Amino acid sequence: MTRSRPDLVDSGVPWLGRVPAGWKTKPLWSLFERIKDVDHPEERMLSVFREFGVVAKDSYDNINKTAENRSIYQLVHPGWLVANRMKAWQGSVGISSLRGIVSGHYICFAPRHNEDHRYLNWLLRSTAYSNGYAVLSRGVRIGQAEIDNDEFRLMPILLPPVEEQRAISDYLDRETDQIDTLIAKQEQLIATLRERRRSLVRRALTPADSWTTSRIKHLATTTLGKMLDAGRAVRDDDSLAPYVRAADILADGSVRLTDLNEMPFSAPEMSKFSLQRGDVLLIEGGATVGRPGFLEADAPGIAFQKTVNRLRPGADLVPRFAYWSMLALYESDFYVRFYGSVSFVHLTGEKLREISIAHPDVSEQSEIAGYLDEKTAKIDELIAKTERFIELSKERRSALITAAVTGQIDVRAAA
Amino acid sequence: MSTLGNFVWSIADQLRGVYKPHQYGDVILPMTILRRLDCVLEPTRDQVRQIAEAESREELRDVKIKRATGLGFYSTSPWDFTRLVGDPDGLSANLTDYIAGFSKNIDVFERFRFDNQIATLSEKNRLLIVVQKFAEVDLHPSSVSNAEMGDLFEELIRKFAEASNETAGEHFTPRDAIRLMVDLLFAGDDQALVEKGVVRTVYDPTAGTGGMLSVAEEHLVGTPEHPGLNPDARLRLYGQEINDQSYAICKSDMIAKGQDASNIQLGDTLAEDKFAGTTFDYCLSNPPYGVDWKASEKAVKDEVARAGERSRFPGGLPSIGDGQMLFLQHLATKMRPVHDGGGRAGIVLNGSPLFTGAAESGPSQIRRWLLENDLADAIVALPTNMFYNTGIATYVWILDNAKPAERIGKVQLIDGTEFYSKIRKNLGNKSREITAADREQIVKLYAAYDETEHSKIFPTDAFGYWTITVERPLLDEHGEVVRDRKGNPKPDPKLRDTENVPFTYAGNDLGDDGRDATIKAYVEAEVLPHIPDAWVDEKKTKVGYEIPFTRHFYKYLPPRPLDEIDADLNQLVAEILDLLREVEK
């Protein structure tokens, strides 16, 4: 239980809100001196991460490559402030606890104060300060705002007494460690539930002796969608129609039918590329080749494109059973294993028609499909709740940090 | 795309193989314009031919034909589309003759270099079928109004621009952005504009294909089917354009509307103002962003050297890499002078002119000139993803040299970034549009002139600041202050720093006149408590201006209270436990 303080007053800074009466603010420039110390190519490589602050670069996967010429990198020491000017508003700021070199594009400051380094790190990386950086950042391109040092140096640094700074740091280290442990457990739960779901599907589709194995071409019709040709001139009888493409087949097995791209289709094409209840749509290529989506209802006036392969079940194949069978193939990496001799796997109509699936009679198919629908719905709901729990835990973590560094929580009693 | 637009563009099918897609416009656009002129001239063709046969003197012929037809252009050639199609074998020569027969002010086909296209089409056996196809297109004014014709051009040009992958911000401004700017531009003058027979001038120094001029006319005069504010008004359209092809398109369109052909001029506006000495009631522009002005540099600097404060660039010059702020000043100086009734201007810019440049840099001095002369009336932030080939933030600036009393000395900032609707299919980078309803909301904010979530009003001084130089004493090896011969402390260059002091700090409402007292108050409150030995070198103080638009509209979302989050978490835990039991069944 967190205890509120009664002695809060307006800080005078909109994004800081109310803070304890005895706390001071100083401009950043009075606590840190900007320094650019280059030509240390042999030093350890560091980076500023949004999630973690200043870390050793080899500790984390990073798609950003190290510059060939490390001489332009800047040396920093423990206690130094490092900011990525273009991402400060997204949280790429931190007090380093390490000695090493960082990108020449960062701005680096040596400490000229006697405050607690850990406290300043929590403070400068809090949501309140991210808002502060965002207010002061500017840019011409969207999402590419940059904070100028003239503004950054004026950031008001909120300073409780040093012993209270240490208490806040200790409190936050302890509390965030607990939250992070809890989040890790929840993530483990989700991974286990997903494994359980896959296992459930696989077991339900394990063929009994009475089952038959048939190729898809004997159970269903398949159609590859229309070639995309936006640049082609429109023929007289064509009209624009929305179409489903690979990106509209969602990970949860549903098909998005709104906000679709459009292209010209003739009337015969609209018939050929129709979508109706019970169709199973398969992604035709790429990393998610073969992932299925299921059409819950007819979709008149909507067609599909050649990144989508449509499987329309015949009389001997129950649509939902077809969906689960195709999902099981996808989840077992069937396509990558079976066709993976080339770099980009395509699920052509020909390949799709030749795939064999095991199936019982129609009534048992319905039974199995119904069972899987019910069981997976429960797992999916639990996963969604757990994801929401993680989301709220992260929100709590951020709010807790901001509350602590702005003095909303009285850590003197909580310590 | 409209049915008509689809049909016209489908003629490009005939060009496949002979032309690359980005070249289709070289044929489709001039042919469309030729067909339009053909249709417009059809009712008066025989009459014109008779006058031409009877009158060999060119000047008199022009006058007589103009009086007889009411049109500003004509063709004396015996050819038209019907006759051209009737003589397939002589088509190439006859088409060339047809084009050559137009009056002198129809110079657009030269600018399209259309002779070359005719030769290519003929050689590749495409000419006849293209001409036949265009002969089937009905572009008579009775079927296709001027506004509809403008929309058709816009569609074709957009197709052309998409294939050409033009430079960001160049080439083409979408109609919805133009309509908003036109509405804002005329918004302050609604009363005067509805007077019977009112005459106004409108000017675009970066006319492109004339889209802005067309929308202005549409707004004020309109058409019989869609009347504007004042169908009896007369709006004279003026423009200058540097690009041959865009010029050709713009001029053709203006001619089709019955405007004076000489009011569209070819040339680089920055280097040479073809309308020097002329001012206008309304000015509009969407200049290129982030494009250098090296090619115009000598001419611009010569003008400044020659005319100084009376040049078109009285505020100064921006960095060579971006010419937007030259156009901004150009527009400001082309507004009708106050003593003649005053003028207004609208210009679309990216974010740079709001804040680039330190105190006393070119851009800052230009902002200073605009604000100190009270020429900036409003700045409206547009939704992003508005333009065909750029995804950047854009702003409409409205300038006014004769503001209504309540707007004097102030600037209104309007955050219009949320007033948009999604369009059904993306057009390049354009995935949003400003509908008539969205536009109305923004114009209402402008006219209401209130402080709201989306509209804020500032005195011009609110954007000014002083950059002061803060000095610290130089210390010798003993830690003692080093002093000059007069006993004053010497500054340490390594510790020298600058601070920006807003004009409005501590409630100063005297602008630059409050300099000494305000800077003193700032230093005492914000600097000396941290470095008591510091002082300000007053000789180095500079005045700067910036408009930190985003800052004034940033929506700070504070974290939810911890108790509230905890309650949600506890609820979720209970639900998760129930669901776990369900899953295990």
Automatic annotation (TrEMBL), chain A:
Lineage: superkingdom: Bacteria
A GO term for molecular function: DNA binding
Domain Type I restriction modification DNA specificity: 88-187, 210-384
EC id: 3.1.21.3
Gene Ontology biological-process annotations: DNA restriction-modification system
Keywords annotated in UniProt: DNA-binding, Hydrolase, Restriction system
PANTHER family xrefs: TYPE I RESTRICTION ENZYME HINDI SPECIFICITY SUBUNIT, TYPE-1 RESTRICTION ENZYME ECOKI SPECIFICITY PROTEIN
Family: Belongs to the type-I restriction system S methylase family.
Protein known as: Type I restriction enzyme S subunit
UniProtKB/TrEMBL annotation, chain B:
Keywords: Methyltransferase, Restriction system, S-adenosyl-L-methionine, Transferase
Repressor is among the record's keywords: no
Single GO biological process annotation from the record: DNA restriction-modification system
Domain N6 adenine-specific DNA methyltransferase N-terminal: start-end pairs: 4-134
GO molecular function annotations of the record: DNA binding; N-methyltransferase activity; site-specific DNA-methyltransferase (adenine-specific) activity
Entry EC no(s): 2.1.1.72
InterPro entries: D12N6_MeTrfase_N, DNA_Adenine_Mtase, DNA_methylase_A-5, DNA_methylase_N6_adenine_CS, SAM-dependent_MTases_sf, T1MK-like_N_sf
Pfam families: HsdM_N, N6_Mtase
PANTHER family in the cross-refs: SLR6095 PROTEIN, TYPE I RESTRICTION ENZYME MJAVIII METHYLASE SUBUNIT
Name of the protein in its database record: site-specific DNA-methyltransferase (adenine-specific)
